[in-house]
């Protein structure tokens, strides 16, 4: 009984750690899919896409994941050209050159269940590049 009482907290932390790692990996995959959708929107309608279209595509894709919260997306960044230029307006997005890449970067704040050990959220950042036709 004494040995079990000594091992049980460590075993519990190990199991919760595995669960946290799985949640973080799931969130990472969801953010990857969201960046892909954001970049895909730009390549489908080059010259007609707005920043709001890209943000909506990213938020919709993240919203389909059951364990990922749309409200924890800290930034969505769009860059285009070679070298990359940050796009901040719809007019700048419309002038992205053909045959050049567009990059969408999403940063997500992942909160741990065990706030006792991890007081700060883990920032997951993922980028996706596609060529503008």
Summarize the structure.
The protein has 133 residues and is α+β, with helices and mostly antiparallel strands. It has helices at residues 2-44, 51-63, 90-94; strands at 73-80, 85-87, 101-110, 122-131.
List the helices and strands and how they pair.
Blueprint: H1 2-44, H2 51-63, E1 73-80, E2 85-87, H3 90-94, E3 101-110, E4 122-131
Antiparallel strand pairs: 1-2, 1-3, 3-4
Helix pairs in contact: 1-2
Describe this entry's structure for a reader.
The chain is an alpha+beta fold and 133 residues long. It has one domain (2-131). It is built from three helices and four strands. Strands 2-1-3-4 form a four-stranded antiparallel sheet. β1 (73-80) and β2 (85-87) form a beta hairpin. α1 (2-44) packs antiparallel against α2. The longest helix is centred in the N-terminal third of the chain and has 43 residues, at 2-44. The protein is elongated and about 70 Å long. The mean pLDDT is 92.
- Determine the oligomeric state from the structure: single chain
Overall number of structural domains: 1
Order of the strands making up the biggest sheet = 2-1-3-4
Number of helices: 3
Q: What's the pLDDT, averaged over the residues?
A: 92
Basic shape: elongated
Kindly, what is the distance between the CA atoms of the first and last residues, rounded to a whole number of angstroms? 68 Å
The portion of residues forming beta strands comes to 15-25%
Instruction: Give the number of DSSP strands.
Output: 4
Percentage of residues assigned to helices: 40-55%
- Quickly give the structural class: alpha+beta
Largest sheet: 4 strands, antiparallel
Mind telling me the C-alpha Rg?
A: 19 Å
The poorly predicted ranges are: none
Query: What order do the SSEs take from the amino end to the carboxyl end, as H and E?
Result: HHEEHEE
């Amino acid at each position: 009984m004494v040995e079990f009482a000594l091992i049980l907290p460590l075993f519990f932390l190990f199991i919760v750690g595995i669960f946290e790692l799985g949640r973080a990996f799931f969130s990472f995959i969801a953010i990857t899919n969201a960046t892909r959708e954001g970049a895909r929107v730009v390549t489908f309608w080059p010259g007609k896409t707005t920043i709001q279209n890209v943000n909506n595509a990213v938020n919709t894709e993240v919203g389909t994941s059951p364990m990922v919260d749309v409200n924890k997306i800290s930034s969505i960044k769009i860059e285009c050209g070679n070298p990359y230029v940050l796009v901040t307006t719809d007019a700048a997005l419309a002038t992205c050159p053909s045959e050049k890449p567009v990059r969408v970067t999403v940063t997500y704040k992942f909160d741990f269940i065990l706030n006792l050990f991890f007081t700060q959220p883990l920032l997951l950042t993922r980028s996706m590049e596609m060529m503008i036709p």
